Amino acid sequence: MTAPATFQVDESLGVTAPLGFRAGAAAVGVKAPSEKPDVGVLACDVAARAAGVFTRNRVVAAPVLVSREHLKASRTLRGVVANSGNANACTGEQGLADARQMAALAAGHVGCRAEQMLVASTGVIGRMLPMEKVSEGIRAACGALGRGPAADLAFARAIMTTDTRPKQAAVRFDLRGRTVTVAGATKGVGMIAPNMATTLGFLTTDAPVRTALLRKILRRAAEATYNCLTVDGHTSTNDTLVLLASGLALREGRRAAAPIAPGSPEAAAFEAAVTAVCGHLARLIAADAEGGTKVIEVRVTGGASDKEARAAAGAIANSPLVKTAFFGEDPNWGRIVSAAGYAGLSSGPETMRLTLGDVVIFDRGRPVDADPARLEAVMAAHDILVHLDLGAGTGQARFLTCDFSYDYVKINAEYTT
User: Which of 8, 83, 116, 335 has the smallest C-beta neighbourhood within 10 Å, fewest atoms?
Assistant: First the structure.
């Protein structure tokens, strides 16, 4: 058995598609004034193996601190409780107490220890959680726990802030003659920068995987997808990406299935599936970026190393000048080349080749007289590929980003109001 090269991603399925998972949501006015769901609970019917990666920001929200503690304290988890509309960040000891209370309340309804529930929050920084509303929301969300497309979408909507649409995805593949599912929901449109998870993301699977392997796979998948995504270069205080594995897809009665062995073809297939889901979710974030009108894939090849290529791709993807040029549909290749140049390259423009879409616009230190009609068509498209070959080696990297529009400024200038 080998890892599938591609997967059919299904956006109609979400976190309850794998066996053993239920989800519920409630609208209690945390995102006031609003009737949109703002508290969500994801629960596993059995003790699930779990892995998580979190923000590297030194300004860390209370739910991140509590979730880190719980991952260390418990070998298995039973779920996650999340709220939107309030980040519970920079809220001191009271914020920590509130995050712990969220876990305890959800655990009481699910039937597990508080340490078996993770906590996630997203929204405005520096405001205390309205715990009366949150507590009511947890009770209502737990009372609504269910499976299927409606439950999936309810949970995906409950974690949204300025997102314009829910983001979820699932893939299925064969393992030992059975169907295994990897699914997930995510949120994020702003305060997105590659320094861990850059958003909230919740992944579920019914594959049998031990914790150590789950951690390695999640970290590698995050590094290749979420950590190669940027909207505005700003790393959040609340970044959380969690993967829960029920192991139920291959279970025979009450007998647990043999776990996937590290280094095996099964492990490669599973990692490919997790990476496919993470990659699709990351692209959904780029496509829904605050004020964004285009999805831009920055591909850098020919680096002296992968690290050099990654630095160049990140510099291009994060450049406000590059992003505004794409909004204006201006093929300003000088901004792209110069952004790569300040990333600490070992080579200069004399070895570079820049292609926008399928149009070569700069080659070996000199501009190319490209066909204006073809270039105009590339810049007018919603999805644009920027390919910079540094011509210095075999290193390569890929980033996803978006353009900067007038609406991005408006949304963020008025965010807390």
Answer: 8
Structural domain including 270 reads: 21-287
Catalytic residue (one of 91, 161, 186, 198)? 198
What residues form DSSP beta bridges with 202? 185, 242
Do 82 and 187 sit in the same domain of this protein? yes
Say how many domains are in the chain: 2
By CB atoms closer than 10 A (0-12, 13-18, 19+), residue 255 is exposed
Domain boundary among the residues 256, 287, 318 is at 287
- Both structure tokens of 24: 């519920």
198 an active-site residue? Answer: yes
Q: Is residue 405 assigned to a domain?
A: yes
Q: What is the pLDDT of residues 285-304, one digit of tens each?
A: 888 877 678 999 999 999 99
Q: Is the dihedral of CA 378, 384, 385, 386 positive or negative?
A: positive
pLDDT at 3: 40
Q: In terms of domains, do 248 and 167 share one? A: yes
